[in-house]
Amino acid sequence: MLADTVFAKADPAAIRTDPFPHLVIDDALPQDRLNALLAAVPTPETGYGRPATRLALEARLLTTLIFIDPVWAAFAERHSRPDVTRTVAALFADHWPAHLSNLDLSRARYGLLNGAGAEGAEILTDARLEVITPNPDAPAAHRAQHLDGAQRLFSALFYLRDPADDGGGGGLTLFRFRGERPARAEDLNLLPEDSVEPVRTIPYRANRLVVFPNRPDAIHGAEIRAPNPLPRRYVFITAEAPHALY
C-alpha cells in the first residue's frame, strides 16, 4: 500500500463484510506525523456557537490558503492524489461494488473537488478536514443513519481525536436495512430510524482510519456523543464522479 499515507498498513485480509465491506486501520500514521498534524490543526470551529455542526476545509483550501500550516497542505495534497483512489479500489478488489466496476480508474481524468482540474474530470478527489463543533451542554450527533450520494466511490475517515478529549461516544455506527430499502434512499438526509438496525459501532479513536466503498446499502452515521467542550475532528478522504453512479 501507499507507504507515505494513512493506508500504509491496509490489509485486505482484515476487511469485514458485516453489514457491508469495511476496514479499520489503527495507528495509521507514525506518532510523530500524527503529533505534527494535531499541533497544527486548523480551527474553523473557533467562534462558531451552534453545537454539533459540521464545518469543512476542502483539500483545495488546505493546499492554497496562506495561513494553513505546510504540514496540513502536504497531507491534503498527498491524500487527494489519484493513486489513493486506485489503492482503495485495489484494496477492496474482492468487494468492489458492481456499479463501480465499469470505471477505468487507471485512465480516468482526475481533478480536485471544486479545485484544480475539476472541469472535465471524470473522478473528483478530496481530503478535507471536517470538524464537528463542540456540544458542551447536551448529547448530540451531527448526522445519524444515512447513505452517501450515489456519485461517491468510497469514504475514508481518519480520526484526529484531541488528546485531551476523554468524553464518550462520537464513533461511527454501521447499519443494515431492517426490511425493504426505501425508494431513493441515497437522496434522504436521514433514513427513517425504524428502517435500519445498528450492527457495529467503531469507536472514535485518534489515528484510526475507517474506509469503505460506497454502496446502496452502506448505511452509517455518527454515534451520539456525550456532552463535550471539544470538537470532533477527522480528515474525510474520498473520490466521486460528477454524476450518480447507480
List keywords for this structure.
10 strands, alpha+beta, Jelly Rolls, 13% helix, single chain, 246 residues, 3-stranded antiparallel β-sheet, 24% strand, 7-stranded mixed β-sheet
Question: What would you say about this model in short?
Answer:
The chain is α+β, with helices and mostly antiparallel strands.
Characterise this structure.
With 246 residues, this protein is of the alpha+beta class. The protein has one domain (12-240): Jelly Rolls. The protein contains 4 helices and 10 strands. It has helices at 31-39, 59-62, 70-79, 82-91, and strands spanning 23-25, 54-57, 110-112, 123-132, 152-159, 172-177, 196-202, 209-213, 219-222, 232-240. The strands form 2 sheets. Strands 1, 2, 3, 4, 5, 8 and 10 form a 7-stranded mixed β-sheet that branches. The longest helix has 10 residues, at 70-79. It is globular and about 45 Å long. It starts with 22 loop residues before the first strand and ends in a 6-residue tail after the last strand. The mean pLDDT is 97.
